[in-house]
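tl;dr need the bound structure. longer version: we got a ligand (magnesium ion) that a collaborator sent over and nobodys looked at where it sits. i said id run it. heres the input, straight from their email, havent touched it
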Amino acid sequence: LGKDDVVLRTEDLRKTFGGLVATDGVSVEIERGTITGMIGPNGAGKSTLFNLISGFYELDGGRVWVNDTDVTDLKPYETAREGLVRTFQTPRRLEGMTVREAMLVGATNQSGESILPLWLSPSKVLNEERANVERAERLLERFEIGHLIDQPSTDLSGGQLKLVELARAFTTDPDILLLDEPVAGVNPTLANDIKRFIRELNDEGQTFLIIEHDMPFIMDLADPVIVLDQGKVLMEGTPEAVRSDQRVIDAYLGG
Ligand code: ADP
Ligand code: MG
């Protein structure tokens, strides 16, 4: 892969919790424009890897690059600024916020954050705010939840919260989106909707790295698929290659 084709690269990532090695030297390259799947048995270290990449956990070793920029020591919001955004396996409830507010918290270019630009050019700040609101509305429409914009986020169903989480992830226009189990606990109809949304966005060029337990879902959507087991990359390949690989079968059966 050429430099420009790689949107995310990790080298020898390591993380231990006490005596437990959760991430044991993970090196991966994610190609721009792909939907890359990440599977592996429970406890394989998938979520930990996302936490390391996105800056939510401190690394014990290794490096991470986004668009060839070293983001190893950056905070999550700084990594997001470099183009990498992640969602959580369990979406956070945004206490006290409406969907609109939750969307705006995630938006970039908020010069209103500092008082100085407001004082220097109030109309610019207002224009940006209006643009952010319009953008939020467009994103919610895209995920077919435009009607929820004034709902308190505490009133949302689990499925609606998943969609808001997805929409929010796009407010910073990421180069790569990391989704941690986007259809876990979601009914089959909504799971199909989410699959359709991901496909449509990918057709428009959006790169995804997706952890998912639902095999039919991820095998239908992703190519390539990376298999993690005991903190290590067990293999990477097409869904067909992964499905028929004896090591993968053993990893799942061995537990
Ligand atoms: P997966 O997402 O593949 O199911 P995780 O990355 O959540 O696996 O967990 C990998 C291992 O690391 C598990 O044994 C888990 O118990 C452990 N682990 C994950 N996060 C923490 C943490 N914050 N503190 C202690 N142990 C953790
Ligand atoms: Mg997990």
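gonna send this back to them w/ a short note. The chain has ten helices and ten strands.
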